[in-house]
Amino acid sequence: MLSYLFKRLAVAVPTLLVLVIVSYVLMYAAPGGPFDTERALPPEVMANLDRKYGLDQPLVVQIWRYVASIVTDFDFGPSFRYQDQTVNEIIAQGFPVTLTYGAWSFLAAVLVGVSLGIAAAVHHNTLLDYFAVGVSIGAQVLPNFVMAPILTLVFTLWLGWLPGGGWQGGEWPYLVMPVIALSTSFMASIARITRSSMLEVLNASFIRTARAKGLPRRRVVFRHALKPALLPVVSYLGPAFVGMITGSVVIDFFFATGGIGQFFVNSALNRDYPVLMGVTILAGGLTVLFNLLVDLLYAWIDPRIRY
Amino acid sequence: MTLLFGRRMFREPLPPGTGDAPAGRSLWHDARARFVRNRAAVASLVVLLLVTLFALFGDFVAAWSNEEIDWSMLGSVAENGAPSLANGHWFGVDELGRDLFARTVQGTRISLMVGIVGALISVVVGTLYGATAGYFGGRLDGVMMRVVDVLMAIPYMFVLILFMVVFGRSILMLFIGIGLVSWLDMARIARGQTLNIKHREFVEAAVAIGVRPRRIILRHIVPNLLGVVIVYATLLVPSMIIYESFISFLGLGVQEPDTSWGALINDGASQMQYGTLWQLLFPLFFFVVTLFSLFFLGDGLRDALDPNDR
Amino acid sequence: MTLLRVRNLRVSFATGDGTVNAVNGVDLDVEAGQSLAVVGESGSGKSQLMLAVMGLLARNGTAAGSVELESVELLGLDERELNRIRSRRIAMVFQDPMTALNPYLRVADQMTEGLVLHLGMARREALAESVRLLDAMEVPDARRQIAMYPHEFSGGMRQRVLIAMALSCRPRLLIADEPTTALDVTVQSRIMRILAEARAELGTAVVLVTHDVGIVAGGCEHMVVLYGGQVMESGPVDRVFAAPYHPYTEGLLNAVPRLDRDDSRLPSIPGDPPDMNRPPAGCPFAARCPRAVDRCRHELPGLLSRAPDRRVACHLPLDGPA
Question: Which ipTM did the prediction report?
Answer without folding.
Answer: 0.86
